[in-house]
Amino acid sequence: MRRLAPLLRAPLCALLLAFAGCGGPTEVVGSVAIGEPFELRLGETVVVRDRQFSLAVLAVLEDSRCPTDALIVCVWEGRVRLRLATAPLTGDQAFHEIHLGDEPNVVTLGDLRLRLLEVLPAARLDRIPDREYRARFELTVAP
Is the predicted pLDDT of residue 125 greater than 70, yes or no? Predict the structure, then answer.
């Protein structure tokens, strides 16, 4: 986004202000299209093209996945829970929780469905720093 048209500047500023109080600073990193997978790191925000809202990954609430570097046998694959925020250009910010490893790995956002496809890096024995987490998502039109 080298140069935003004047009509886009105000809505983008509104989105940034909306996320300012959501539990940590977020950075707008671009825009995403419906139907195309995209990746976000913690603290990153994207604007959804052709829709009037943005999406941010705020926190990893839980990561109980079975470590791939352990010499153990897990009886359960575990799960990852993420806290998300959406902010329409007009209206209040909303918070959502999405899981991978158990349901729900889909969140309904109006006429769209957000699916969590993958969380990286793979689980390991040592604690994963927040800056290393990346989540892959896909937005589709709800049936």
Answer: yes
